[in-house]
Design a protein that fits this description.
Blueprint (H helix, E strand, L loop, with lengths): L7 E6 L2 H10 L3 E4 L6 E6 L2 E7 L9 E5 L3 H10 L9 E2 L4 E7 L5 E7 L4
Pfam families: Glyoxalase
Protein name: VOC family protein
InterPro entries: Glyas_Bleomycin-R_OHBP_Dase, Glyas_Fos-R_dOase_dom, VOC_core
């Protein structure tokens, strides 16, 4: 057996409406649920990002990493939406271009793209 990709990441959120707005601002497309639901699912490529309403979620649980086709465009989209990434996109020694951002509940997200080999 070989694990090929992440199918879904589920995050606990305190405010579904705010969380949905955040992820929609970044370009995630709603699959199920929405701002008034207790459970929401967004498309994330061939995988899914799930949000589950919890009265007092813990923060700082870790990081979800999403590969995207253009890291700089996602970063620019976040800035245009008034969001605050932790830093501008950068190339890492492990071979990815990436940046991090936290949602309103403190979940850290990384948007990354493998660097092409030269």
């Amino acid at each position: 057996m070989r694990i090929e990709s992440v199918n879904a990441v589920t995050l606990f959120v305190a405010d579904m409406e705010a969380a949905c707005g955040f992820y929609e601002s970044l370009g995630f497309v709603l699959k199920f649920g929405g701002p008034a639901a207790r459970f929401t699912s967004f498309h994330a490529g061939d995988s899914f990002l799930n949000l589950s309403l919890a009265p007092a979620p813990e923060t700082g649980w870790g990081r979800a990493i999403f590969h995207v086709d253009d890291v700089d465009t996602v970063h620019a989209t976040a800035l245009e939406a008034g969001l605050e990434p932790a830093f501008p996109p950068r190339d890492a020694h492990w071979g990815e271009r990436y940046f991090h951002i936290r949602d309103a509940d403190g979940h850290e997200l990384s948007f990354a793209r493998p660097l092409s080999s030269k």
